[in-house]
Amino acid sequence: MDFEKYLEKNCLVLEYMHESFVEVFKTQPILMIEEIQKILQNHDTSDFMKVEQIVEVYEKYGVSTGGCHDF
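Predicted structure:
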């Protein structure tokens, strides 16, 4: 395989990967915000439970809340 074909093939792969990563990073925060909004709009739960539910959303998406919430 000559260098030009190799470069062209790899550029296509990188372009596809870039589009996939952009889609993931644009979607995940929006989904998190929507879930958190629903939690905050629920007037049937206490503030303590809302915090617990928000922490669960963070954990669901792999976002660290640090160790200070463990009790």
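Summary: The chain is about 75% helix and 0% strand.
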